Amino acid sequence: MNDRVTEASARACANIALAKYWGKADAKRNVPAVPSISLTLDQLVTETRVRFDPALPSDVVRLDGRRATAAEAERVVTMLDRVRRESQLRLSAHVTSHNHFPTAAGLASSASGFAALAAATCAAAGLRFNARRLSALARASSASAARSIYGGFVELPAGSRGDVDLAARQIAPPEHWNLRLVVALTELGEKKVGSTEGMERSRKTSPYYQAWLDQAPKWSRKIKRAIKERDLDTLGSAMEQSTLAFHCCAITSDPPILYWAPATLAALATVRGLRERGVPAWATMDAGPHVKVLCEVGAATRVRQALDRTPGVTRTWVAKPGPDVEVHR
Ligand code: DP6
Question: Is-contact 191 259, C-beta < 8 A?
């Protein structure tokens, strides 16, 4: 057993799902029921430092300079406990995490957070996990975090009940395709129903949930092929179908979960208008009202200007493909 201070930090980027994950095959082990594909984004970064310290009577968790709430701390401590079991370490930990996002408005991501936490905790505990094992560890806390271990274009396969090792893998590195994702913030404030709760509600109550499970793999396959062939039109149209189908499940849950604001629809109309004028741009939304628009690098300025002029859009910025998680000892 180790009784000296050991510490490490890690830096992970958020990711945006091009093919959405919504629904679990195993809620206890947090195994997704559908395959998902994402793009890791630079700029949206979480930095996390973990220190195992014999002088600490219990774990301390600080997020963005404040003490974590009980619910937040519980998810972090669950990850610490997993790593303590693997490494036979018995010490308490001090965890500090900072989101370096261009704005604090409603985009804070569990993906970058749990990817950075998994990598920093393992390094601090002296575990030399490869990317695959780190991804499986991050997935157990938040499935989208499994994808943030890798840079560029990443897939997380669907799993089945009892799966413990399910991990993401890289489809292509960031330099494969110099795409841009223009983020349009449409509204301030926290999301009303978190994704974990939302997808469980859809599974239990939406009459369209089974149709979503049946169709989602088809969009994933199409998106993966389109990434390999750098075919933005095929990628974009499958991406829009994937996001609208997942929102359809959310909207038809009981009680309904409507993540959109009026400005969400206005931004979608802007994106359609751009395409009608010959600018290839495609939209996706997660468990919130913001709209993220995928386009070629040469179209990014035009797309951003059009979104800036859209009623209800409060802020925009442009992200590009980001790197793997990085660890600093
Ligand atoms: C709509 O990964 O946050 O953003 O595994 O329960 O932590 P948990 O869910 P989470 O869900 C993300 C849902 C989504 C789509 C996606 O990122 O694939």
Answer: yes
Q: How far is CA 210 from CA 89, 157, 207, 281, in A?
A: 43, 18, 7, 30
Amino acid at 98: H
Mean pLDDT value of segment 72-95: 97
| Nearest residue to 182 via CA among 99, 267, 87 | 267
Q: What class, spelled out in words, does domain 6-175 have in CATH? A: alpha beta
Q: What is the pLDDT of residues 135-151, one digit of tens each?
A: 999 999 999 999 999 99
Judge whether 23 and 197 are in contact, CB under 8 Å.
no
Answer whether 253 contacts ligand 1 (Cβ < 6 A): no
Ligand 1 center–CA 144 separation, angstroms: 5
Backbone torsions φ then ψ of 67, nearest 5 degrees: -70, 135
Class of domain 180-319: alpha beta
Residue nearest to atom 14 of ligand 1 (CA): 286
Task: Give the position, in ligand 1's atom list, of the atom nearest the Cα of 139.
Answer: 5
Residue 103's pLDDT is 54
Q: Where are the domains of the chain?
A: 6-175, 180-319
